[in-house]
Design brief:
mainly alpha
Length: 100
């Protein structure tokens, strides 16, 4: 037989957490935020977008970090993999935020 009395406290904790989540979902309303960068979007794209100085600096820094990691650890496969994953992350996030 299962002794149910030892499970009363965890069940009440789970119930409390579920109750807090449900109450907070009903209390929160939709957010109506204005776009504070609406007028500066072209300037931001020129500064950080594709083929900009900032993106070139990020590329240079990632090459340097990958080379340093490969030299220090003597594991060039991991260093090259880190560089490739970093570039994928950078390119995907640039597209997600609308800078590519």
């Amino acid at each position: 037989m299962i002794n149910i009395s030892k499970y009363k406290r965890p069940v009440s904790v789970i119930f409390s957490c579920v109750a807090i989540v449900l109450v907070s979902m009903f209390i929160m309303g939709p957010g109506y935020a204005e776009d504070i960068f609406l007028n500066q979007k072209d300037e931001i794209k020129d500064t950080v977008g594709a083929e900009s100085t900032v993106q070139f600096a990020l590329l240079g820094a990632s090459i340097f970090i990958a080379a340093l990691m490969g030299y220090r650890t003597k594991d060039w496969g991991t260093a090259i993999g880190t560089f490739v994953v970093g570039m994928l992350f950078l390119n995907i996030t640039m597209k997600v935020v609308g800078l590519a």
